[in-house]
Amino acid sequence: MKILVVGSGGREHALAWKLAQSERVQMVYVAPGNGGTALDARLKNINITDLHELAAFVESEHIALTVVGPETPLAGGIVNLFRARGLKVFGPTREAAQLESSKDFAKAFMQRHGIPTAEYQTFSDVKLAHAYVDAKGAPIVIKADGLAAGKGVVVALTLEEAHQAVDHMLADNRFGDAGARIVIEEFLAGEEASFIVMCDGKNILPLATSQDHKRLQDADQGPNTGGMGAYSPAPIVTPAMHARVMREIINPTIAGMHKDGIPFTGFLYAGLMIDAAGNPKTLEFNCRMGDPETQPIMARLKTDLLTVMEHAVNGTLDAVELEWDRRTAVGVVLAAAGYPDSPVKGDIIDGIPAETPESVTFHAGTADVEGKLVTSGGRVLCVVGLGDSIKMAQKQAYESVDKIHFDGMQYRSDIGWRGLKH
Ligand code: AMP
Ligand code: GLY
Fold first, then answer.
1. CB within 6 Å of ligand 2 — which residues?
2. Least buried of 158, 254, 293, 357, by fewest C-beta within 10 Å?
């Protein structure tokens, strides 16, 4: 069988790597892929991003199944288009992807269906937005309504920051259409976790739990990033917490989408904030897998991913039970100098160790230029280590990290630290 993975990040490398392990898979195409997917003999990059051209490629190559990584093609309707042409694809329709592509849609949906989330209001008028900020006080959170590549959220600790964020989004149009409306919401304190499930429209299959590290520097200091590392499982999600999140958040979301006439198919990612008393609330939905959460999660998945995907697109996910490596996986992101604002590109990358049962390195912002591997994006690599405890997994990951070099390489040295406190 031939499979297509759409995207170019570490998430897509991990998905393609896992799919390629299936005995029934002959080739995994990655569109457009990266330096790592270019180097792997079982994977093949294709340089197509236009959705109609992709569909035509899938038809001409007789690709059996397409898995979509990032939110942009999903919000652009790749699933609608592929389905209309009779092609098997795993992901949400454009309509269902609104859970991520419109914060206002997601918040109104959660309110309507009684799903716990921060109190909020939506604004397109600058004056009313400023007045609401003043009425609520700081800390307060300002979010661009649309997709903003992870940059559309400002957690304002002071009123000044909050007013500035309102002006940037609504008055200065920093995010274009994506910021023409903003959601202003209550600041939630607590510990975050990533709760990701697969859904076929009706049946829900939870993946292993994980936790991201959004801040650039150790101990969660510095600016927000796309994610500097992740580990799985996340001990904060105890079996009792897992059951509660399913009951209060995931099940009502899938049922609510069904009821609203927009059945959800694909990966559903609930970003959770769990307060000190142990109450989970939904910070956001993503309609895709997390990056870098996917990397440690795929490193732990033992079940054949192709079989799972087939059930997912055929509406029979209830027939699947996932088997996980009992070890912990810690994934450390190696980022380029200047990340997240203005990453430096074009530096030569050396020393990536060969895959072992204890460690695997997934590529993200890398390119294969005339046989040389160079940096080509902000998050360059994600180095995953596996071990019987978080500490042992960290040791594996950082031993591999120590072998890798590129100019200006920056990474956190504490991935997994919150897990060590539980
Ligand atoms: P989002 O894209 O909505 O997940 O926001 C990005 C990050 O901003 C989250 O991972 C949180 O760290 C933070 N954040 C978002 N909403 C809130 C909130 N209501 N209270 C506190 N932090 C938040
Ligand atoms: N790791 C956070 C995200 O994928 O949105």
1. 212, 227, 286, 290-291, 293
2. 357
Name the closest-CA residue to atom 9, ligand 1.
283
Residue 417 has which token pair?
């630290």
> Residue 268 pairs with which residues in a beta bridge?
197
In sequence order, what are the residues at sequence separation of 6 or more whose Cβ sits closer than 8 angstroms to the Cβ of residue 5?
12, 15, 16, 19, 28, 29, 30, 31, 66, 67, 69
What is the 85 CA–ligand 2 centroid distance (Å)? Answer: 30
62 Cα to the center of ligand 2, angstroms: 32
pTM above threshold 0.85: yes
**Are the CB atoms for 382 and 415 separated by under 8 Å?**
no
What number does the ligand 1 atom closest to the CA of 189 have?
Answer: 21
Per-residue pLDDT of the chain (422 residues; tens, 9 = 90+): 999 999 999 999 999 999 999 999 999 999 999 999 999 999 999 999 999 999 999 999 999 999 999 999 999 999 999 999 999 999 999 999 999 999 999 999 999 999 999 999 999 999 999 999 999 999 999 999 888 877 788 999 999 999 999 998 888 877 777 768 999 999 999 999 999 999 999 899 999 999 999 999 999 999 889 999 999 999 999 999 999 999 999 999 999 999 999 999 999 999 999 999 999 999 999 999 999 999 999 999 999 999 999 999 999 999 999 999 999 999 999 999 999 999 999 999 999 999 999 999 999 999 999 989 999 999 999 999 999 999 999 999 999 999 999 999 999 999 999 999 88
Query: CB–CB of 75/97 below 8 Å?
Result: yes
Report residue 108 as tokens: 């109104």
Q: Does residue 141 have its Cβ closer than 6 Å to ligand 1?
A: yes
* Atom 15 of ligand 1, residue of closest alpha carbon: 283
Report whether residue 284 contacts ligand 1, using a CB cutoff of 6 Å: yes
50 Cβ contact partners less than 8 Å away, ≥ 6 residues apart: none
Counting from 1 in the atom list of ligand 1, the atom nearest the Cα of 185 is 19
- Closest ligand by atom to 331 CA: 2
